Amino acid sequence: DMVAAYFSPNYGMLRRLGRIARRGGTVRLVGAARSDNGATVAAWRHCLRRLLARGADIYAYEATMLHMKLIVADDVVWIGSANFDMRSLYLNLELMLRIEDAALAREARALVARLTGQSRRITRASHEARSGWLRRIRWTLGYFLVAVLDPAVSARLFRLEE
User: What are phi and psi of 2, to 5 degrees?
Assistant: First the structure.
């Protein structure tokens, strides 16, 4: 289970999540339906097709702006400030607390289930219906900006400051 305000991992991470779903594991993702940064929502939408094709359960949280960062895997919970994007994973100084506790993992999964109840489920069919060529171009550009260009430029700037 994953709740991510920004979700734009690299293709290796997407492949790993897809592999879990394809092999019968449960991959449930709650992402932001809207954001203060339109490129991040476009980047998230760009990633969905691959995950949906492999059987992941995807939800767009619509009740309010989503800011939560939560991951639950088996009996381990990660919660903190890191989004599931390239900047948070590799550049920013983020903090994720890892707690190995079966009872907390059950509670966190129950929280994710409540969030899915406040969200719109995205299916392969509904995603394809929204995926006109213009939107796909926009989503791809959003992904390029958020997952490729921004981290590359930021990393270069950090190196120049040293």
Answer: -145, 135
